[in-house]
């Protein structure tokens, strides 16, 4: 307390010293005194008011505490009385169990009375609904069916809520409304029949198709509502969810598949042009159906069904499956060409479907000349002997003729297919040469490798080189062999004697004298390479044989 007084005195001295720094301020001492007195009185008044307010709050709080204490004592007395009464009424509660059972029965009877009219009218409604279905009044029939299902589901839900373990009463309700599920199945069959003929119905009676879509949309809403209620009550009526929208798309998909497969009117035995006719019918069906779907069918379905996009996917899948089925059959060469032409040209030109990757269509298509064709050619052309006893065979000419025919057929279809067939032919030739003892293998493999490594104009040039080499091999008139070899040498000046010897050995029909004459004639007039010529044969070697051996 003394420290506080000293601090107050020191503060007052500082303030007085600050106010009386000049002699003329002594005249204002009385004025300063009155001002400080007023400030002191004001501070004391505020302090008294604050203290009084705090005292009033304390007084009020004490009063409330006393009141609360009295309330707590009253509650304690009341709880004691309730506890005493409860102990006395335990036996009374046991005697009221019969009343509880009566209340449950009363609730059940009240629900039964409420649905009594609907219950008694069930047989009549069933007969009316069956008649409406037979008459084709699908919307009215579905309305009656919804009433029946609502009555059944309401009774079963109430029974489930009151006594979920009472299976006997649930079975009784389900048995009484047993014809409801049969009516639902019958109505569904009528809906699927309409959907199977949707493309025809939309042109003759679009109202019927719209009615079918409205019924399906109603069932979808009921399914969603029942699934939401299941989260709260755990009860799901029998036959739910129906998922009629999903079944609708399945019916449409099966209809599209059946329509594509059913477009085959003839067989090979009845008409040699059966495949061409079948593909043309398929093209017409697809075009007509999609035009109808775009102009008419799309207007009968809600936008969120995206019916046109769904039908496009269905037709594409059905077409792909049908093309693969046809490709898997034992087709003749002309039929394979017809099928490829339709897939690569007609389909992409006329059918307004998304363009699938070529691999999707070409999977399962067998080449017209594959390993089996090469083996058959080898078996048919076993080597014979010439007049000098040397082996000779026409196999190279036949093989290259097969390749040429395949390339000509592929070119009639598309250039892209021609390039793929060329690659396939090269692969088959490489496989065939790998199994054969042939001095021309190194030449052929190197040309094939350069063909794959090339691009653009280089690749085209390598193809020309392969064709030129093939002309030498497949030439049938030996008297023109010198001219053909001379043409090859003039085009490719870097070709060497061992290359010529290997190619002549591949032919198998030239004797030693003919080979020697050709090589000597070529040595007398070697061709001069042009400045822009890119050497092609200089890196191709024949390591296992030399020219002398090739000439034997």
Walk me through the structure.
It is built from 24 helices and two strands. The chain has helices at residues 2-19, 29-95, 97-114, 116-120, 122-135, 138-162, 167-176, 178-196, 198-204, 206-233, 244-261, 274-295, 307-328, 333-350, 358-362, 371-380, 395-413, 415-434, 441-453, 457-474, 481-491, 497-507, 512-524, 547-550, and strands spanning 384-385, 391-392. The protein has a two-stranded antiparallel sheet with strand order 1-2. It is flat, with a radius of gyration of 51 Å.
Distance between the termini: 138 Å
Write down how many β-strands occur, each being a DSSP E stretch of 2 or more residues.
Answer: 2
Radius of gyration: 51 Å
What's the helical proportion of residues?
Answer: over 70%
Which band does the percent of strand residues land in?
under 5%
Which oligomerization state do the chains in this entry correspond to? single chain
Uncertain spans, ≥5 residues at pLDDT below 50?
Answer: 355-382, 452-457, 545-552
Shape category = flat
User: Which structural category do the helix and sheet elements fall into?
Assistant: mainly alpha
SS element count, helices: 24
Give the SSE map.
Elements: H1 2-19, H2 29-95, H3 97-114, H4 116-120, H5 122-135, H6 138-162, H7 167-176, H8 178-196, H9 198-204, H10 206-233, H11 244-261, H12 274-295, H13 307-328, H14 333-350, H15 358-362, H16 371-380, E1 384-385, E2 391-392, H17 395-413, H18 415-434, H19 441-453, H20 457-474, H21 481-491, H22 497-507, H23 512-524, H24 547-550
Helix pairs in contact: 3-6, 5-6, 5-8, 6-7, 6-8, 6-10, 8-11, 9-10, 11-13, 12-13, 12-14, 14-17, 17-18, 18-19, 19-20, 20-21, 20-22
């Amino acid at each position: 307390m003394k420290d506080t007084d000293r601090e107050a005195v020191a503060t007052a001295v500082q303030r007085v010293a600050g106010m009386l720094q000049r002699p003329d301020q002594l005249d204002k001492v009385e004025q300063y005194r009155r001002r400080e007195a007023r400030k002191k009185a004001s501070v004391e008044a505020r302090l008294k008011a604050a203290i009084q307010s705090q005292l009033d709050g304390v007084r009020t709080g004490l009063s409330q505490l006393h009141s609360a204490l009295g309330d707590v004592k009253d509650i304690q007395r009341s709880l004691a009385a309730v506890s005493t009464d409860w102990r006395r009424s335990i036996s009374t509660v046991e005697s009221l169990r019969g009343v509880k059972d009566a209340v449950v029965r009363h609730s059940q009877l009240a629900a039964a009375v409420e649905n009594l009219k609907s219950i008694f009218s069930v047989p009549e409604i069933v007969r009316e609904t069956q008649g409406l279905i037979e008459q084709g009044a699908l919307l009215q029939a579905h309305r009656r069916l919804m009433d029946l299902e609502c009555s059944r589901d309401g009774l079963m839900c109430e029974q489930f809520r009151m006594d979920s373990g009472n299976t006997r009463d649930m079975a009784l309700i389900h048995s009484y409304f047993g014809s409801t599920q049969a009516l639902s199945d019958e109505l569904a069959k009528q809906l699927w029949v309409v959907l199977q003929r949707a493309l025809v119905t939309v042109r003759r009676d679009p109202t019927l198709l719209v009615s079918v879509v409205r019924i399906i949309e109603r069932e979808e809403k009921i399914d969603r509502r029942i699934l939401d209620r299941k989260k709260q009550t755990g009860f799901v009526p029998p036959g739910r969810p129906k998922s009629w929208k999903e079944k609708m798309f399945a019916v449409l998909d099966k209809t599209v598949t059946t329509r594509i497969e059913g477009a085959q009117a003839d067989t090979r035995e009845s008409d040699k042009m059966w495949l061409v006719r079948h593909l043309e019918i398929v093209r017409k069906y697809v075009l007509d159906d999609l035009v109808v779907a775009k102009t008419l069918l799309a207007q009968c379905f809600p936008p969120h069904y995206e019916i046109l996009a769904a039908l496009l996917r269905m037709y594409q899948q059905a077409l792909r499956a049908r093309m693969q089925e046809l490709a898997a059959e034992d087709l003749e060469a002309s039929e394979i060409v017809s099928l490829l032409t339709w897939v690569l040209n007609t389909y992409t030109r006329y059918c307004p479907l998304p363009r699938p990757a070529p691999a999707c269509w070409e999977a399962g298509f067998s080449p017209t000349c594959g390993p089996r064709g090469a083996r058959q050619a080898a078996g048919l052309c076993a080597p014979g002997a010439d007049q000098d006893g040397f082996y000779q065979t026409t196999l190279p000419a036949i093989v290259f003729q097969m390749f040429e025919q395949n390339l000509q057929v592929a070119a009639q279809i598309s250039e892209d297919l021609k390039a793929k067939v060329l690659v396939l032919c090269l692969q088959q030739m490489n496989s065939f040469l790998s199994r054969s003892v042939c001095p021309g293998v190194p030449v052929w493999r190197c040309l094939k490798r350069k063909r794959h490594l090339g691009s653009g104009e280089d690749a085209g040039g390598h193809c020309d080189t392969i064709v030129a080499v093939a002309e030498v091999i497949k030439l049938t008139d030996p008297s023109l062999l010198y001219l053909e070899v001379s043409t090859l040498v003039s085009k490719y000046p870097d070709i060497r004697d061992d290359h010529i010897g290997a190619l002549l050995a591949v032919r198998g029909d030239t004797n030693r004298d003919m080979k020697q004459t050709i090589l000597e004639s070529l040595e007398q007039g070697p061709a001069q390479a042009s400045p822009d010529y890119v050497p092609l044969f200089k890196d191709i070697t024949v390591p296992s044989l030399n020219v002398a051996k090739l000439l034997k």
